[in-house]
Amino acid sequence: MGKIKLAVIGESVYTERLTECMQKHAPEYLEVLSCRGLEKVSEFTDSIQPDIILHEEKSLQEEKEEEHLIRIYLSTEKDVKENANSIFRYQRGSEILRQVFQYYERNSKKNLVCRCKTAEMEMTAFYAPGGHELQLPFSVAYATICGEDEKVLYLNLSEFSGMRMLFKQKDKDNFSDLIFGIRQKRERFLICLQSVLHQTDRFDYVLPPENPEDLYEIREDDLACLLSLLQEQTAYKKIIWNCGTLNQAAVQVMECCATVFCIRKESAFGKYRKTEFEQFLQKEMRQRLRKKVRYVCPQAGNSFAQGVDLLSQLRSGEFVKQVKAMTEQQE
């Protein structure tokens, strides 16, 4: 199957810069092309046969619909209706790209299956027996460090971790939608993934389920299928999991990881939790998991400055240095 072709049509500096941004963030199975000048549109589309047209001219939206062509209008209205074929233009290019895939996933009948030649995928998990308020920032900082040298995907299997608030995301699509998409149409995995994928300058991420009950409904074959598809069809070199509960799905993920960082406190109750967790790991059926566990005890202290965006501090700051030092000690 060939690449999906996305044509950005417009004469403004905005569409020129948007095209450059989308080309930078486009996955290997998407080709982003540009057409400047409305008089050239017909000849351009006949020549390249795009699957999607992203444009800023309302006149193009009024043209006769074609079966295999999806038109998306770059609107100046922020409150776009859910079923409208338009996207708010004044937002990050990577977010516009995600919404393009979201719209394409809903409306296209085209399947996309490609196999990327990629190195063996490595996975790391984070878990805190009894919970720890620094589990999210610690794992996000770790993803930031790893993202300096390789392509990283961050997946969150936690209840109410605060991730949506941290990243200031209002989008409702999340890990539950990814699993549901795999169950329904495995052959459309890449399109489904792109529709729920968000990006930072260091790593990509999928938001955790809004409903905690979804975490307990993830089946063993769901995760097996997801891991297989990520390895076969994406270029990610490292997957980082934030596991908030020790349910069946989390245990399955941890047993597939090279390392499981267990975050704990130095307090009396922190030691109690560690002891109980270690007793659990002594069970014969948990031998595989026991060998992967590495304990870390992060201390926020004065690592976070008041009045400065927390997410930016997790990308670069004292806390990141602490995480890097602690993880290096565990190797």
From TrEMBL:
It comes from the Bacteria. InterPro entries: P-loop_NTPase. This is Uncharacterized protein.
